[in-house]
Amino acid sequence: MHRSYKFAIALFVVVVLVLTWLETSVKEEINWNPSYTHIDEIPLGSRVFYESWKRISGDSLELLKIPPYEFLNTEESGGTYFFFDRQINFDDDELDHLLNWVAEGNTVFISAHDFSNNLKDTLNIETGSEIDVEGFTEAQELNFYNSKIRLQKDAEFDKQVTKAFFTEIDTLNHTALGFTRRNKMLPKINFIKTGFGDGSILLHTAPQVFSNYFMLKDKNYTYTSNLLAYLPAGKVYWDAYYKTGKSFYSSSLYILLNNRSLKWAYYTILLCVVLYIIFEGKRKQRAIPVIEPPKNRSYEYTGIISSLYLEQNRFQELGDKKIALFLEFIRREYRLDTSRIDNGFKEDLAAKSSNSLARTQELFDKLTAFQKNKNSSKQEFLELSTYINQYKFTDGKPGTT
Q1: Which of 218, 188, 219, 194 is nearest to 206 (CA)?
Q2: Which of 14, 177, 218, 365 has the greatest number of beta carbons closer than 10 A?
Q3: CB–CB of 122/94 below 8 Å?
Q4: How far, in Å, are 57, 114, 166 from residue 54 at the CA level?
Q5: For residue 292, how far is the Cα from the chain centroid?
Q6: Contacts 24+ apart (CB under 8 A), 363-372
């Protein structure tokens, strides 16, 4: 890898590590998302309320994780069905089953900022919400109309949560039990009771009173305790199905991503994997070895052989080979048959090689004389070689120098 790439990767990793350290060192923000599940410890979870109620009531409080429609079709038990969440919506069949169950002498308690339209139409109620113009806040104070359980000081929820209330109720059939207000302003009804058959329905518009934050702030738990006083004695079915938050986590990464340190470690590993794929995962070709082409060693070989002949004074044999190579040259270059050297051959060679006939006759006389002499000297060999070379390369090629 090029040095500049390595430097860029190192710099990027350092920046990521610094940012990760800065992020993990920052104090984690409080999660104010509404959950209302019985296992959540966040401010708007309901673990404190559930654990407190469970400890007091024991087996009379039963947790239901199935839809009401399924529960009401399989259970014969009576008691109170306890719902609370940001919003509760029943479909028509489910609501019919629930109302029939109430009509048999049971109780339904629902606390939500808003209710399904079919329930509101059935009970002839309407809900609304508002923001306090002074300070643009939805903080609210809560209390009861009944003087026996009314708090001396209103319970206050001072965080941004919907301030919901009833804008329309049936005054002949509904009983106002509680109210919400802000800064001692005109109270608005937020808790009502209505009879339905042999049972009753309790509707409340502030589910945040069951949250961890509300229960642990000052003496607000007194309001929640007095609110539960309106429930009849007996079995209570806690609905864990209609909840904004999950009571179980289907993702295998929940624990990993729910912890800030583990989450950033996980993201860093993913980032490193991506960088590896980008820079190191590309197809790499093996280094191609440099193969030198075969060298023509004929010249060196010839030189070595010649040296051997010269060292042994075998000039006659060198001359004979020189003559044989020259005849091969004639056959290859001029396409002449050298098996019979006569006057016709010499005339053809002279014509093709652009040499004179006399020069050609003189050359072959030299060749014949050298071959007849069986013990030629070095000087004779050199003279023969010079004569052949001059014939081939000086006079034998037109246009050469």
Answers
A1: 188
A2: 177
A3: no
A4: 5, 27, 30
A5: 48
A6: 363/387, 363/388, 363/391, 367/323, 367/326, 370/319, 370/323, 371/319, 371/320, 371/323
Report the relative pairing of strands 126-129 and 164-168 from DSSP bridges: antiparallel
- The one-letter code for the residue type at 263 is K
Instruction: Please report the DSSP string for 17-67 in residue order.
Output: HHHHHHHHHSPPPP-------TT--STT--HHHHHHHHHHHGGGEEEE-S-
Provide the 3-class DSSP secondary structure of residue 352. Answer: helix
Q: Rounded distance, CA 353 to CA 330, Å?
A: 9
Tell me: the pLDDT tens digits for 262-284?
777 788 888 888 877 777 656 56
Give the helix ranges, DSSP H, for 251-314: 254-258, 260-279, 298-311
- The C-alpha atoms of residue 299 and residue 319 are separated, in whole angstroms, by 18
CA dist 25 → 28, 30, 254 (Å): 9, 15, 21
CATH class of 47-243: alpha beta
What average pLDDT does the segment 349-377 reach? 84
- Hey, what are 96's tokens? 């019919």
Which has more confidence, 106 or 320? 106
36 near 45, Cβ under 8 Å? yes
What is the phi/psi pair of residue 304, to 5°?
-65, -45
Domain ranges of the chain: 1-33+244-281, 47-243, 300-395
